């Protein structure tokens, strides 16, 4: 779970989606305007310039909120689009002391919510640290699999969060997302048009949803991070294909990893698969180094990129591509966490933590 903000390329594709002239986007810098504000800004410009407005973009026919029920048919398929249920800004940070027993070893940010500064370089892990990453990774895998068994219509994402939280604690680990920069829950649950960082709530899963469950655990001083997208009941064909292709992209990307390979080969591999099948790749989130820290270098971009850096034995990082049906540009909800596609299309994600070995890569969460 690492939000990079909007890239310049994303801004340009947002302009395309909103049918706004590209001058609007080029005048707007990625760092000064985010998410929803950016969209509003673009649309104000758009109306003041009397340009054609896209109804499917900003006003999906009869927008329904997450609790409204009923399926919404649109050109991306047959599923319910989620929308914010509150305009309250931000979230209330969790009561970590009330939720996690004293005997559980907590990461440095757990009580204050502030992660530490990043180290300048990419950590190279020795055999002992890798073994600990493997333990954390294998627990994350087990918890995610438990999450998968809970996915069915009628189950709330709060319920999934509660059960996984208890299971993580029972295994003497800490749920890494809890109070990471104030995140209020123990796992992320991102449903249908939510790209990432969805917050578990009392919405019940519906037949036809897809849901990504993102699990990170902190065990014996090391984090392990994995996620998968599950089908809820009967999902339409475009939804199933989106999920399958995203998983395929992660598998293909892991398959090219070994010492000496440029890190940017990961993004090129993933982008090629997305292009072949007509999907877009989120550029707002990246994979990341992981180990003693939840997030560290290297950043792993999933889109076509020319960043520097070469894989070395002992590097531990995540690969976690997000494919989208329409635009990959996301807007952030008022909760300041949830990022959903700007056009309401669905997004799927899969993630593993891997370590670079002598002649390939091992899935620590596989
Ligand atoms: Co991650």
TrEMBL record:
Reaction(s) this enzyme catalyzes, per UniProt: Release of N-terminal amino acids, preferentially methionine, from peptides and arylamides
Cofactor note: Binds 2 divalent metal cations per subunit. Has a high-affinity and a low affinity metal-binding site. The true nature of the physiological cofactor is under debate. The enzyme is active with cobalt, zinc, manganese or divalent iron ions. Most likely, methionine aminopeptidases function as mononuclear Fe(2+)-metalloproteases under physiological conditions, and the catalytically relevant metal-binding site has been assigned to the histidine-containing high-affinity site.
A GO BP annotation: proteolysis
Binding-site positions, a divalent metal cation 1: 214, 225, 351
Region (Disordered): 44-71
PROSITE patterns named in the record: MAP_1 (PS00680)
Keywords annotated in UniProt: Aminopeptidase, Hydrolase, Metal-binding, Protease
Listed Polar residues bias regions: 44-57
Stored NCBIfam families: met_pdase_I
Free-text function comment from the UniProt entry: Cotranslationally removes the N-terminal methionine from nascent proteins. The N-terminal methionine is often cleaved when the second residue in the primary sequence is small and uncharged (Met-Ala-, Cys, Gly, Pro, Ser, Thr, or Val).
Record's protein name: Methionine aminopeptidase
